[in-house]
Amino acid sequence: MWGHDCSGFTQRIYTIMTDKFLYTDIDLNFVPHPITKDIGRLTENDAIKRSAKNLLLTNYFESFFNSQKGTPLRGLLFENITAMTELTLKRAIELVLSQYEPRMIFQNVVVNAEPEKHYITITIFYTIRNKTTLEQFDVILKRTR
């Protein structure tokens, strides 16, 4: 408990002193930096987008020791797409992002299904913690035969 309080206190001090807190993740494409040859990193909005996309594309039971982490996106691609399917998908996305991505403040999700073309477009609206601008990103899921 002490470590949690201490790290939160350090984060607040850092934010107050520099007025900017930088969220970073490693780039999972493992493209090396051209000069330093280190693994590249994603910052701020790109890091949050990649993390959210990974959460959306994770099925249930794929995450070790946490079987509830994930969404049923891949399974719903092969269902008849109805208004109820879209609602189920929207609720699952809201749940996984609000629980497992603490860097984003989830605002809204729009699910647009095109059953004739066999794809689903998901648009997610969010704000980054300690920021005020509304961000968005799209994920397009296409069923291949």
Fold and architecture overview:
The protein is of the alpha+beta class. The protein has helices spanning about 1-20, 45-55, 75, 85-100, and strands spanning about 25, 40-45, 105-115, 120-130, 135-140. The protein has a single domain (about 1-140), classed as Nuclear Transport Factor 2, Chain: A (Roll), CATH 3.10.450.40. The strands form 2 sheets. Strands 3-4-5 form a 3-stranded antiparallel β-sheet. A two-stranded antiparallel sheet has the order 1-2. A hairpin with a 4-residue loop joins strand 3 and strand 4. The radius of gyration is 18 Å and the shape is globular. The model is unreliable at about 1-20 (pLDDT under 50).
Ordered list of secondary-structure elements with their pairings:
Layout lengths: L1 H17 L5 E3 L14 E3 H13 L16 H4 L6 H18 L3 E11 L4 E10 L5 E9 L3
Antiparallel strand pairs: 1-2, 3-4, 4-5
User: Strand-and-helix sequence, N→C?
Assistant: HEEHHHEEE
* Beta-strand segment tally: 5
CATH architecture title: Roll
Shape: globular
Calculate the terminal CA-CA distance, rounded to whole Å: 50 Å
- Protein structure class: alpha+beta
Any idea of the CATH topology? Nuclear Transport Factor 2, Chain: A
Outline:
It is built from four helices and five strands, in the order H-E-E-H-H-H-E-E-E. The protein has helices at residues 2-18, 44-56, 73-76, 83-100; strands at residues 24-26, 41-43, 104-114, 119-128, 134-142.
Features:
alpha+beta, Nuclear Transport Factor 2, Chain: A, three-stranded antiparallel beta sheet, 36% helix, globular
